[in-house]
Amino acid sequence: MLLVTTVMWSLILAVTFEFARQFQAFDYRTFFKNLLGPFWFLFEILYLLFLFIVLAVIGSAAGILIRDNFGLPYFVGVVFMLAAVGFLTFKGSGLIENVLSFWSIILYLTYAVFFVVAVIKFGPEIQKNLTSGIIKPGWVLGGFKYAFYNLATVAALFFCLKHIETRKEAVISGLMAGVIGVVPALLFFLSVVSHYPQILPEEIPAIYVLQKAGFPALLIIFQIVLFGTLIETGTGMIHAVNERIHSVLQTRGKELKSWQRPVVAIFFLLVALAISTFGLVTLIAKGYGAMSWGFLFVFIIPILTIGIIKIRKNKKRGLFL
After folding, report:
1. Domains and their CATH numbers in the chain
2. Cα 60 to Cα 247: distance, rounded to the nearest angstrom
3. Is residue 268 a contact partner of residue 238, using CB atoms and an 8 Å limit?
């Protein structure tokens, strides 16, 4: 399944990055107006729905982390996350880019250590479950669906693509992003498969495995990193909305003021708080699956058809560098 996801991500991200570079589309409104024309709003509808679900999921996860590990009320974690996201969106693109880069390195190192610990403690169980597992029908479809809804988050990264100057940079960056992006998922899967199937009902499987492993220090570090990653994810996705609003205001000779950015963030997070009452597991199982098909039709298929055609036409005009 992860192999299918990697191929999908690499191919689509390479085309997406080049399309964004050619049309100088560094917010999702500009990008999809160039891709879908008058139907660009279909992506925005889906993205906003997806945003609420993602924020509800990370808000719920933040609350659970604080509640279960520090004995504080559930909403303390949610409020702390809200404050952190508000602060980062207030500071704008520069700080957000730096935080995304720095925290991604921390995340990868933590997952690597998590994997090593899991292999040391549960190596035989991992090997047993990998070799004795039954391949059920639909695994390819599962890989596609996982790729579809995760690719929607590329809208949160358009502002970072301003640094790409050539076709070669766009394609290489896209291909590498697909491979790099799947590494944490692979390490996570190999680590938690040791406790399959009893791990399935757990809200945060990685915490469950670390508790079983008996590494208190790593458990604390992992939870801090996970909490920071939740903040990072929420910030990136909301910042995409701010950049979309900013681009519209710019066409009217105005700009989105710094104090207005956290206001937008707080609005989305408060709505997501209400949604999070449905529960983390339910949100992931129901919400993400439904979103997959929507993004297939408004993003994946168009970028691989209309997007490639428009890129080729631009090449004829001498814009394909």
Report:
1. 2-316 (1.20.1740.10)
2. 31
3. yes
Taking Cα atoms as reference points, which of 305, 303, 320 lies closest to residue 31?
303
Closest among 301, 310, 299 to 43, alpha carbons compared: 299
Cα distance between residue 307 and residue 13, in whole Å? 12
Rounded to 10 deg, the angle between the 41-70 and 260-275 helix axes is 70
pLDDT in tens, 10-69: 999 999 999 999 999 998 899 999 999 999 999 998 888 888 877 877 777 778 778 877
Name the pTM for this structure.
0.79
CA angle 96, 101, 104 (to 5 degrees): 115
Size (the chain), residues:
321
- Of 8, 4, 21, the C-alpha closest to 304 is 8
Run of H or E including 51: helix 41-70
